[in-house]
Amino acid sequence: MIKSPEDLKRLREEAKSLTGIRAGQGVEIIVGMGTCGIAAGAREVMSAILEELSKREMADIRVTQTGCIGMCEKEVLVDIVRPGEKRITYGNVKPQDVSRIMTSHVINGQIVEDLVVAKLD
Amino acid sequence: MQLFRAHVLVCGGTGCVSSGSKKIQEAITDELVKQKLDKEVKVVETGCHGFCEMGPIVIVYPEGTFYCRVQVEDVSELVSEHLVKGRTVQRLLFKAPVTEEQVPSYRDIAFYAKQQRVALRNCGHIDPEHIQEYIARDGYEGLAKALTSMTPEQVVEEMKKSGLRGRGGGGFPTGLKWGFAAKSPGPKKYIICNADEGDPGAFMDRSVLEGDPHSVLEGMLIGAYAIGADEGYIYVRAEYPLAIKRLRVAIAQAEELGLLGDNIMGTGFSCRLNIKEGAGAFVCGEETALMASIEGSRGMPNPRPPFPAVKGLWAKPSNINNVETYANVPVIFLHGAEKFASVGTENSKGTKVFALTGKLRNTGLAEVPMGISLREIIFDIGGGIMDDKKFKAVQIGGPSGGCIPEQHLDTPVDYDSLIALGAMMGSGGLVVMDETSCMVDVARFFLNFTQKESCGKCTPCREGTKRMLEILQKICDGNGVPEDITTLERLGGVVKNTALCGLGQTAPNPILATLRYFRHEYEAHINDKKCPAGVCSALLEYKIVADNCKGCGACARVCPVGAITGEKKEPHEIDTSKCIKCGSCIEKCKFDAIVKG
Amino acid sequence: MCQCASDAEPKTKEAVELDKVLAKYAGKKGALIPVLQAAQDIYGYLPAEVLKEISAQLKIPLSKIYGVVTFYAQFHLNPRGRNIIRVCLGTACHVRGGAKISEAVTKAVGIKDGETTEDLRYTFESVACLGACGLAPVMMVNDDTHGRLTPDIVADLLERYK
Predict the structure, then answer these.
(1) pLDDT by residue for chain B (597 residues), tens digit each?
(2) What is the ipTM of this complex?
(3) In a domain, A9, yes or no
(4) Which of B357, B363, B384, C55 could anchor a disulfide with C134, C-beta 3.0 to 4.6 Å?
(5) Total domains, chain B
(6) Is residue C116 within 8 Å of C82, Cβ to Cβ?
(7) Is the domain of B28 the same as that of B61?
């Protein structure tokens, strides 16, 4: 029940997170979901990412997927693209690495160097 | 809170539903469950995207990939390719009409690229049955602003500053209209929404109601606050069942959240909104007739004054605007009147939604800034004429409007320029005709419509439309005489000046405009007994061109009266005394061997 | 003559429904058209007795009710078919061959615009616009909108509606 314009504002912030994905801004997380990626556990990594996002209520983040990019032995591959920064590819990502990537890179912009396999412009 | 990595938007507008979008939506949901993606991917039913021609439309976010004419058989591929592997399904992408190039993204399709969506801002992007999605896109913020930081007088002033004019036909300045109703004294006033979209060829109001009902409710509430109304009615055509359903859902959700009803957002302002279903009468689009209909009477117009702002519904001061007008209002209060007025021409501000139909490659809804040229609308957005035929005329404004020929296509479109050309904005129906459309037949078509819909209250309209229709029928039948043209012009002038309401006053427009630009077609019908476009069957003769005829016999088999004879593999012949000019033979002939003229 | 006997007869299912509608709108302003719409939903059309009942309950003269019923295209005084075929003859459909669809319907079910088949299977009417102009020519059968029609598919399409 909205009892004041402030209530409306609060509801809007909450609601924005539900539809933010359609706005097309913010950080993009790309998970390699080719056959190789899925075999290496991409689905579990994807679930971990989504779980982490909803735990932190980070709705302006777009999670997309891509097919095999030919580095199959490094799967699961996860790319992080922060607006205006290099595209960072992490390899051999396990579900337990997700939380670290989130807190240090996605939120604070600190690249998790030990997992990086490529940096692209 | 559950987050999804992808949203699949399936269009649930009337156009796409009739192309099967409900089944697509079910199939996608099933497939997602089957592939265990239902926790990661959300399916959203939206309102109309305006590109009905390409339906059913499916858009996948975050990429914003635009898939069109999706069939149930495509669904499993779409899910496993796009949503599992992240690969676009090329064959389902929109193909640019001329270059045949595939266009993956919504924003890059020419049909959308030239558009500027204000009234349609949310259509196709939100789930109209979830108020949260409207709120997420700044819904009800304009209302909150008006209620908390502005007096009703300031709201009226802001509307005047915006320059918004009624989008339903007449183009009367909305701010002025609100000002009149606000000034009328009285504790009881009504705010009314005209959703009786009756112009054949116009469907923008349906789209707004189906795709973004809350924008209309919000606009009405701002209007109610401005004029001091505490009750309102939305008068919707009964032919729009989906729009009625979505409105009911929207009203219930807004009431539940305290955005509608008593003490809205705790500001002390109260307003209730009711839905009234129309019962099928075009004249009810006229404001006094509409109010008579809400009151439960025959929907006949009344002479003005008194204007509704003084004595309207149940003799109380009332304000009435149409759907598209109200849908523009929240934007004015969200971003300010100046921003709104920065788009458009000097006397026509903002954008207008046109329903593009007829012989166009891309039909659908296009919202464009006022002042854009007709050529841009028809050729850039509409993609040009179907089957590479030649453009002949565009009919604007439905039965009240007129036809505009090629030489005026570069005129900037606004309320005043269209009137100067003998047409009018009307509700924004835009029917494109090519060389195969007969202008006399088009005029007859519209007169037939207004004649049927004339309520019969005033003589000029009741009798005038009937006589004009008779004359047009006579011309189409090949019995016209040269005086008919002057009679039509005189009679048209009389009806225009003396009819009681807008329906009658504008009824002669289709005739007068076609006479202005296509007089030679009338003359051809009357003097030469020919229909240059090959439409009026009484004036046609079907012939077989012997050189093209392969003697396949397809035409002879389909002819219902046995008028075509000939030996196999030899050129056939049509017996014109038997021929009923049904045209079936032309449709069957694969060699273009049959001509009419 | 005494009318008591008829009162004793059990009310039909429809009459019970109508009573509910009348009770819901009793004393409300502008109730006539919604009541007529609801009554037509119940009976499929508006029989004379029903109009008399509405007149008595809402205290509106029968002549006024008759005036309203005959004014609006939506109301019908005669029984209608189980399946309502509405062929759009709006501008966009006109330009794209709506008349041919209309002819095909007549050919398929043997009735003209405004008529009902004797077995009450179909009622055929033309309408000015269904608002689905992007898919012209269009027709609606009951609540289903069918777009991008060609005359040759009309018969098969109608056959599906029993």
Answers:
(1) 577 888 999 998 888 888 889 999 999 999 999 988 888 899 999 988 888 888 899 999 888 889 999 999 999 999 988 888 778 899 999 887 667 778 877 767 788 888 899 999 998 888 999 999 999 999 999 999 999 999 999 999 999 999 999 998 779 999 999 999 999 999 999 999 999 988 888 889 999 999 999 999 999 999 999 999 999 999 998 888 889 999 999 999 999 999 999 999 999 999 999 999 998 888 998 999 999 999 999 999 999 899 999 999 999 999 999 999 999 999 999 999 999 999 999 999 999 999 998 888 888 899 999 999 999 999 999 989 988 899 999 999 888 889 999 999 999 999 999 999 988 888 898 989 999 899 999 999 999 999 999 999 999 999 999 999 999 999 999 999 999 999 999 999 999 999 999 899 999 999 999 999 999 999 999 999 999 998 888 888 888 999 999 999 999 998 888 899 999 888 999 998 888 888 888 888 889 899 887
(2) 0.85
(3) no
(4) B363
(5) 5
(6) no
(7) yes
Closest CB to B203 among C29, C94, C131: C131
Q: How many C-beta atoms surround the C-beta of residue A112 within 10 A?
A: 17
Same domain for B216 and B93: no
* One domain, residues B407 and B485: no
CB contact under 8 A, C145 and B55: no
Q: Which domain holds residue A58?
A: 22-120
pTM over 0.90: no
**Residue A37, in any domain of the structure:** yes
- Say if CB B259 and CB A3 are below 8 A apart: no
Q: Does B400 touch chain C (CB under 8 A)?
A: no
Residues 128-147 on B with a CB inside 8 Å of A are: 132-133, 135-138, 140-141, 144, 147
Classified as helix, coil or strand, B375 is helix
Contacts of B259 in chain A (CB under 8 A): 2, 8
- CATH classification of the domain holding B217: 3.40.50.11540
Does the distance separating the beta carbons of A54 and B1 come in below 8 Å?
yes
Tell me, yes or no, if C67 comes closer than 8 A to chain B by beta carbon. yes
Most B CBs within 10 Å, among C133, C135, C139, to test the B interface = C133
Chains near B (3 or more Cβ pairs under 8 Å):
A, C
Among B371, B399, B434, where does a domain finish? B434
Residue B163 and residue B312 share a domain: yes
Instruction: Tally the domains of chain A.
Output: 1
Cβ atoms of residues B207 and B13 within 8 Å: yes
Residues 118-147 in C contacting B (C-alpha not used; CB under 8 Å): 127-136, 138, 143-147
Q: How far apart are CA B368 and CA B112, in angstroms?
A: 10
B450 interaction partners in chain C (CB closer than 8 Å): none
Asked if residues A12 and B136 have their Cβ atoms less than 8 Å apart, the reply is yes
Q: How far is CA A17 from CA A58, B145, B351, in A?
A: 7, 23, 29
In this structure, what CATH number is given to the domain that contains residue A34? 3.40.30.10
What residue numbers bound the domain in which B472 lies? 439-527
Q: Phi and psi (nearest 5°) for B352? A: -135, 140
Question: Closest-CA residue in chain B for C70?
Answer: B298
Q: Which among B312, B341, B370 is the end of a domain?
A: B341
